[in-house]
Amino acid sequence: MTKRIVLIGHPVAHSLSGAMQQAAFDHLGIDARYELWDRAPIELADAITELRTDDFLGANVTIPHKERVVPLVDRLTDEAHATGAVNTLTREGRKLVGHNTDAAGFKVALDQLVGRQRMPRHAVVLGAGGGARAVVYGLIREGFQRVIVFNRHLHRAEGMVKHFGRSAAHMELRAMPWHESIIEAELAKTKVLVNATSIGLVDEETPVSAEAIPPELLVLDLIYAQTRLLRDAAAAGCTTADGETMLLHQGAASFTLWTGQAAPLDVMQAALADARAHGLRSAEGEPAAPATASTDAAAPDATSAVDEDPSATDGASAADTAG
Ligand code: NDP
């Protein structure tokens, strides 16, 4: 019987994870189908209940449900508990386990960005959503001593800092209000900048003006594209990386959790590159046009993902909307 793995988000019209995971299942001859479930928050609990049957290997969870799904599972792994966010579900009988593989993906991305240099100790993080939680968790684990979080809605950043309270007791983890001058002052004192907001995902907006970016910064944008931030940073002399490595490695970790097998990284990377070549930009969770109805769809292949008329499915934009 074909096993089912679903991505639950809202919206999830087109998914890079769909292309990447289906390619991995097919390559290893695993009889499994990656499906996209567009579920509004009010429908989340029912969707989670549905996963408790033998048909399902597990699920991915994306915007806006990563934090909401936490109380709906039976057990959390250490990473999921520590971050307060779940992006992967596995099944143990009728019980569901919540994992956070974004954390593992971020670690690989950070290590690659830093390269042979000594791991820095100071970072600025922009954003306080599910992705930012994995980032801050990773920075704490990596031994960073000063991490400043800026978020448009300050209270959300403050909530995140409070969540990490005890695990960050030995260091300085602070939320600060989103003001250009304060961000610029902090960037002048730091070594690493991570953009974990969705600014730049669908347009040429940038969270930080080019003038505010000092040279020699290490800049990671979780968005899977050469955003304006990354281009400005490269022009200023910084080392930069986009969200591809994190996306690939969180996906590989999820694949292994579901199947018990090593993920075919090359195949998954090729599927991602193919999807990108067809115009998909985002890593996950694009805040697209409002979805009008819940829809189920098997993962589109990389080609059909952009050929379809998005309005014919759920009103989401033609770019990728889910991880
Ligand atoms: P969330 O919806 O949980 O958080 C979105 C974040 O972006 C919030 O901090 C939000 O601020 C901020 N934001 C959105 N629009 C604006 C704006 N116009 N101005 C200022 N701030 C804004 O999403 P995630 O944390 O899950 O994802 C965030 C980004 O990270 C996305 O682009 C996603 O693609 C990427 N990502 C990539 C991953 C990868 O594997 N490469 C993994 C996870 C995420 P506020 O709270 O004030 O609304």
Structure description:
- Helix content is 35%, strand content 20%.
- The strands form two sheets. A seven-stranded mixed sheet has the order 4-6-5-3-1-2-13. A six-stranded parallel sheet has the order 9-8-7-10-11-12, with helices on both faces.
- The longest helix has 16 residues, at 244-259.
- The protein has helices at 16-27, 44-50, 78-83, 102-114, 130-141, 154-164, 180-187, 228-235, 244-259, 265-277, 302-307; strands spanning 3-9, 32-38, 56-61, 75-76, 88-92, 95-99, 122-126, 146-151, 172-177, 192-195, 218-221, 239-241, 296-298.
- It has 323 residues and is of the alpha/beta class.
- It is globular and about 55 Å long.
- It is built from eleven helices and 13 strands.
- Helix 4 packs across helix 5, helix 4 (102-114) packs across helix 9 and helix 9 (244-259) crosses helix 10.
Chain-wise SSE layout:
Blueprint: E1 3-9, H1 16-27, E2 32-38, H2 44-50, E3 56-61, E4 75-76, H3 78-83, E5 88-92, E6 95-99, H4 102-114, E7 122-126, H5 130-141, E8 146-151, H6 154-164, E9 172-177, H7 180-187, E10 192-195, E11 218-221, H8 228-235, E12 239-241, H9 244-259, H10 265-277, E13 296-298, H11 302-307
Parallel strand pairs: 1-2, 1-3, 4-6, 7-8, 7-10, 8-9, 10-11, 11-12
Antiparallel strand pairs: 2-13, 3-5, 5-6
Helix pairs in contact: 1-9, 1-10, 4-5, 4-9, 9-10
The structure holds NADPH dihydro-nicotinamide-adenine-dinucleotide phosphate.
